[in-house]
Structure formats: C-alpha cells, structure tokens
Amino acid sequence: MEYLKVKCHRCGNSFHLYNRDMSHEEKPPHCPHCLVQMDKTQWERLIDAYFTFAEVNKNFRKYHTDRGEPLFQVELLTEKKYVKPEKIVLNDDLTGRTGAGMCKESCTEQGYHRL
Ligand SMILES: [Zn+2]
After folding, report:
1. Main-chain phi, psi angles of 68, to 5 degrees
2. Ranges of each domain in the chain
3. Separation of 58 CA from ligand 1 center, angstroms?
4. Residues 30-80: tens digit of each pLDDT
5. What radius of gyration do the chain's Cα atoms show?
6. How close is the Cα of 49 to the center of ligand 1, in Å?
7. What is the Å distance from ligand 1's center to 77 Cα?
8. 104 C-alpha vs ligand 1 centroid, how far in Å?
9. Would the pTM of this model clear 0.90, i.e. be above it?
10. How far, in Å, from the CA of 12 to the mean position of ligand 1?
C-alpha cells in the first residue's frame, strides 16, 4: 500500500496522503498544521504521477508473481532541505564530476544539492 509523505515548507511539518485522498474529485489538500493549500494544477499533476508510480510498483509485484520477473519496489525520495537556487555556489571540480553544487548554508544532511 502506497502513500505519500508531503513536507510543507511553510511550517516545516509533514503529512501523509493515502490512496483514498488521491482523487480528482478531491479538492487540493491543506497542510493540517498551518492550513496552507496546495495549488490546484500541482495537485492534479501529483494525483496522475502518484497513480503512474504506484502502478509501476504494482506491476513489478504482479510480473514477479506471474512470470518470475525480478522484483523491484521503487521509492521516490526528495531531499528534505530546500535551498533557494541563489544560495547554491557552483564548485567546478564537483560540478564537473557530479553535476551538483555546494550549498553555502551549513547543511546537516549531505551538504550538496543537485541543481
Ligand atoms: Zn504547513
């Protein structure tokens, strides 16, 4: 059973969206902590992306069972810390190798952010 974990960067809290929430009949969700509402267009795109993603994982399971195909289950993870683009400093060495930039802020996580 899939669900989405959504981080609200207005208040810094997270909430979950479950299958039952993911419907074009539903209004865009509010953050339950600070009540800010998701943009309608982004909500509709999120629903479509969610069902596409969930179906791929479901098919991995189905074809593993039916045809003995290798079983994979994929999670989409997003870096928790949002850094505004102007706060990212390019580092030539690093950029050449990884396409990543170095964050000026002291990051508690990986210290690097993809551009
Ligand atoms: Zn919030």
Report:
1. 70, 20
2. 3-67, 79-115
3. 31
4. 999 999 999 999 999 999 999 999 999 999 999 999 999 999 999 998 887
5. 18
6. 22
7. 19
8. 25
9. no
10. 6
